[in-house]
Amino acid sequence: MEAMTHDPWRVAQELREQLSSDKRKLAFFFGAGTSIAAGLPGIEKLTEGIENQLPEELKKQFKAIKDDLPADSNVEQILDRIRTYRELIGKSEEKEYMSIRGSTAARDLDVAICQEISKAVAKESSNGIVSHITLAQWIRALHFSRNTPVEMFTLNYDVLFEQAMEHVGVPFFDGFIGSVSPFFAPESVEAELTPESVNTYPPISWTRLWKLHGSINWQIKKGAAEAQDRITRLHGMQNGSGEELVIFPSREKYVDSRKLPFWAFQERLRRLLAGGECLLIILGYRFFDQHLNEIILQGLRSNPRLAITALQYADVPNELALYAKEYRNLSLIGSDKACIGGVVGTWSEPSVKRKSVESWPFWDDVARKFKLGDFAAFASFLELFIGIGAPKHPKDTGPGEEAPVTGDIKR
């Protein structure tokens, strides 16, 4: 039997047509790969760096917990375990778990790890945020043509997407309201465009940015003596020493106020995928979070009008291909092969020959690899829609200034 293949040119054209539709809902799901493309550390390097930067006593506690977990555990699993210990310890200063004695010591370790995460991902990205700016420019071009807002779900703690959208001038809503000490407003996250929600629903032209694992500019603000703590968003990233950042949702019960944004954003994702015609583009995500995977799979099972395209940076693991074979509305596209419509196949030669003057950000002629799993290549692919020139780094442009327009690319 002849081996099945997929045509990279046709796959790229189909994706372009899907992204061009202004009638159905459009959402993006971004994992760590989008930040790695900007030069920030991935989760493995982040875990190693945090361990090296912690003070000696906290480093011992960090390492003891890490050694007690499976070999491939990272800082998120370590934080999850620490927060379980914090719940078990409660307010006691005598209870001890894994050399962490008392509530103060457990809190100090949690705070110190989150502070080190903030330092690592708040650094200026070594590759700049050109790709993020290109995405923001593309989204801005959609503002007045779409019937529904663009929704962006991200697992990243950094603020690269915020910086890019502010630089370009894309209005966005992230669940927080206010100017002095912005507070989380779940009723606006949950709102849909109905007559009943007219007072809480942000404008359609505002992009939604939902940070599923928290952010380095979220912190827990202590309430009054009997008031519940609440989560606020910082103006910048100058969080004070000892302040608790809201990074990574614990899998166990922890602080109710801390759980709220994570729960609200996950429910937003669940509702988005559950009904109506929708396109979800997944990029930079390796499907390691089983809880979020189940939300995605539930959407694929329950909504036949949902289409998900998952772009993978590297080769497609066989276990992921099994998902795409089972769910025909999931297209899994990797560098080595793709599973589209339940059919797994390697890449053939493009059916259309590339002209010498054409740019094909989706295909590597030499390596015969599909490239759109690379966030930089995906941004270049989007650039073909709006004909913008290469965007400048924020350092190179003044407020409100943007790269020159070179003219529309013919489709």
Note down, in words, how this protein is organized.
By secondary structure, the protein is of the alpha/beta class. Helix content is 38%, strand content 17%. It is built from 13 helices and 19 strands. The protein has helices spanning 8-20, 33-36, 43-53, 56-68, 75-89, 102-122, 130-142, 160-168, 186-190, 256-274, 290-302, 318-326, 375-386, and strands at residues 5-6, 25-30, 96-97, 100-101, 151-154, 172-173, 176-177, 183-184, 207-211, 214-221, 230-233, 245-247, 278-283, 306-311, 330-333, 337-340, 343-347, 363-364, 369-370. The strands form five sheets. A ten-stranded mixed β-sheet has the order 1-17-16-15-14-13-2-5-9-6, with helices on both faces. The chain has a three-stranded antiparallel β-sheet with strand order 11-10-12. A hairpin with a 2-residue loop joins strand 3 and strand 4 (100-101). Helix 3 (43-53) crosses helix 6, helix 7 (130-142) packs across helix 8 and helix 7 (130-142) packs parallel to helix 13.
Q: Care to give the gist of this entry?
A:
By secondary structure, the protein is an alpha/beta fold. The chain contains 13 helices and 19 strands.
